[in-house]
Amino acid sequence: GEKLVLRILDPSSAMLGIEALGYESDQQDMFLEALHKPQGMLLITGPTGSGKTVSLYTGINILNTGATNISTAEDPVEINLEGINQVNVNPKVGLTFANALKSFLRQDPDIVMVGEIRDLETAEIAIKAAQTGHMVLSTLHTNSAPETLTRLRNMGVASFNIATSVNLVIAQRLARRLCKNCKKPINIPKQSLLELGFTDADL
Fold first, then answer.
1. For the whole model, what pTM was predicted?
2. Which of 47, 24, 34 is nearest to 169 (CA)?
3. Within the chain, how many helices (H) and strands (E) appear?
């Protein structure tokens, strides 16, 4: 029979700021450092449902100061952001990620976001953009940072191009958090904590 799937995204999630992503302080610093480089590529990876979209939009929102030309190619546009040129790709009419990227590069962008790198053509254009003075943000469906580099190599991207363009790979998962209103403190025996991998120094 027929099946309907709804994917509901809260637009306010893109406005939460980096603190709401759950990164450790050193991870936040690495993310911000990579975001503010004048050129290069920042890749956010993980399985479906790992929060890649929210992290990507948060990064774009941080960069959206009004003084930068930002263009995005998405399938589809999931959160509308003011002051950004957002394009829905449509392969049926020839508007692929690769073609959208080619068009963007003729519009003097400072920052380009590609919803997902799916093929060699898109990867090569994104890397060319990252090597020629543009900041590129994108995602891949891989499970780890090393696997991301392997995926690019398997697509046919030369190793030296990966090395000279990729600034940071973030491989993330969604972790459950305790409810702020209903969580309660408990005392866990020291021995149990040691068995879980904690050390005396941690305790």
1. 0.84
2. 34
3. 7, 6
